[in-house]
Every structure is written in structure tokens, then in C-alpha cells.
Amino acid sequence: MTNHGGFEPVFCTIVPPHVLDQLSQAEDPALAGPARRTLQRDAFERTQRRLTTVLGASAVASVADGKPQRTIHDARHGTDLPGHKVRGEGDKPGKDATVNRAYAGLGATFELLLTAYQRDSIDGNGLPLNATVHYDRDYNNAFWNGEQMVFGDGDGEIFLDFTIPIDVIGHELVHGVTQYTANLTYFGQPGALNESVSDVFGALIKQYTLGQTAAEADWLIGAGLLAPRVTGVALRSMKEPGTAYDDDVLGKDPQPATMDDFVRTGRDNGGVHINSGIPNHAFYLAATALGGHAWERAGQVWYDVLTGGELKEQAMFTDFATLTVKAARERFGDGEELDAVSKAWEQVGVRTL
Fold first, then answer.
1. Dihedral over Cα of 307, 82, 7, 15: its sign
2. CA of 337: how far to CAs of 18, 100, 290, 300, 340, in Å?
3. Closest alpha carbon to 136 in 16, 37, 31
4. Distance between CA atoms of residues 308 and 320, nearest Å
5. Which residue blocks in 186-316 are alpha helix, DSSP H?
6. Which pLDDT score, from 0 to 100, does residue 303 have?
7. How many CB atoms lie within 10 A of CB 338?
8. In 3-state terms, what secondary structure has residue 247?
């Protein structure tokens, strides 16, 4: 997805391509093989998404009744989507823990959106939530393809089951929210904002589910996903970007925390998974300065910007930051919320107009 304007074909993965690229160069074929196959599969799915966008996707009926409509499918280690239906809305849990986690994660995302922001599913109109688990063999990723969630089981060497971290599920579904609202271009700074918004709300879904305050949260994205052999704690850290992992195979987490270390690259769609560390850190700073439950004030400001209609598809960090200041003032007045948001952007080196 490297076009620079207009509607973006949505194919968003939780594991960045630069991580898989690094892993694919490992000397051990047990590590390099799954990474290479995952990169190939991702490239295929990305192309399929482009074709679907051109040809037109099948319509999905939405019913805005304030209740989730979840369906979980099992690909049985194949790649045909959606696969075999294994659990529908209201069905009791089965023996497959992966299916149960996917079902619960979809529900947690739906609940936060509805309870905190009065949004009925990711499109605001009760869109059914569909997911496929056990996708392919040793598949090291999870993705939103514009229509549904897909989870791999991981290779067991570097990555474990992608339904384990609930914030991964939330992150990918929130790409759907962005798709239906601001539709941020998936390249450069707008793409990094796209990724950051998913990290922000993925973290909030995790915190909401655990009942955590901003001070109690770990602010990690993908904690529990890395296998024991990996020297690292997660895919990303919002509290300390650049510290999530430092591994002899995966390399070192490249995320910057401030604009001083902004990374200019043509890889990863202009560094969308890398420079997202900057707005991620700004949200962490604002949320922890305010304290309490982060979804209530800082999260509300970010949600207002995402859905308010003023955020342009090609918005830069400064544009987004300026809108958060405006949103904080409009919703909360000239109080501590405005102060916390303004100072957070100042601390990461993003100016507001």
C-alpha cells in the first residue's frame, strides 16, 4: 500500500515487515523459513486486497442494535478465507483456546467502543465482526484485510499464538475503525498515525478489560506474543519506544520516542510501524499525566479527533497534534486535559499550530 492519496486498500499486519525481513535472514532455517513464507503470504494477501478494492467487496449487512455479532472461523492451517465456522454469537466456549480468545477479543473491542464512545461496532452501525484462526502453517502474523480479522498460530520459535495478546486483536480491529472514519493514508506520517491510533486503542482495550488505570498499565503492545527464546517483552512499548526487544535474531526495536530520532526510510511504507512510536509516546505522556482510566479523557480526545471529520487522509503529526489540542479544549475546556495534551506533544517534539 504505497499510493499517496485517495482510498487506501486496507491490509494491515501487527508484525512489521522490517521485523520479518530481519528474521528471514537468520542462519537457522527453522527461524528464517516461516518468516519468508509469512512475507510471501502477506504480499499475496496485500495484492488480493487491492484487487478486492478495485472489483468491489461483497456487502455486509450491519444492524445497529448495540449487540456484537461475532463469528469465528477455522482455516485449519489453510489459506482460504473465511474457513470453517466454529463459533457464532452466543455459542458457548469450545475446547479450542484460540477460538475462545478470538471471540473474547472481538467482544472486548466491541464493548469498549460502545461503552466508552457510544460507537456500535467498528463502522458505528453494528458491523458484524468476523475472524479466522489457525491461518496457514507457522504463520507469523495477524492482519485486518478490510473485511475481517485473521490470526496465525506463530512458529513457536519467535512468535506464539497471535490471539494471546488482546491488544493485538484490538489493534487490528481499530484499523477497521480508521478505515470507516479518517481513512488515514498508509504511508509516511499519516501511515504512522494510522498505526499509532491502532496501538492507542489496542492498549485501551487491554486496560479496559483488566480494569487498569494509566499508572497500572504496562503500555506494551503484544506482551506475551514473543516466544521464551526471544530477548524482549513485546512488539512495541508506548512508555519507552525503542526498548520492546533487543534480540540477536530480531535485532533491536527501532522505534523513536521523539522527533529528534525520526526515521526517514522507504521501507515499511515509509516507516509506519517505526515512527508510530512518536505519537504513541505522546498519548502515553498525556494519559499518565491525567491519571485514572486512560480511555476516559485522553482516549476520548483521540477518539474525537479520529471520528470528528476534520482529520485529513494525509494528516501529518502536527495536524493530528493540533486537532487533539482543539478537541481537548472543546470537550473539557481550558483545564488539565488541555494542559496534559499540549505538554505531551511538546515533550515528543511535535509542534501544534
1. positive
2. 36, 38, 7, 11, 5
3. 37
4. 12
5. 188-210, 268-271, 277-290, 298-307
6. 98
7. 20
8. strand
Cα–Cα distance between 271 and 192 in angstroms, integer? Answer: 7
Confirm if 130 and 113 have CB atoms less than 8 A apart. no
Judged by DSSP in three states, 88 sits in strand
Three-state DSSP class for residue 245: strand
**Amino acid in position 191:** G
What are the residue ranges in the chain where pLDDT is below 70?
A: 1-10, 49-64
Amino acid letter for position 224: G
Q: How far apart are the first and last CA of the chain?
A: 30
Evaluate if pTM is beyond 0.85.
yes
Summarize pLDDT for 53-71 with one digit per residue, the tens: 444 444 556 666 889 999 9
Residues involved in catalysis: 172, 273
The type of residue at 277 is G
pLDDT in tens, 243-295: 999 999 999 999 999 999 999 999 999 999 999 999 999 999 999 999 999 99
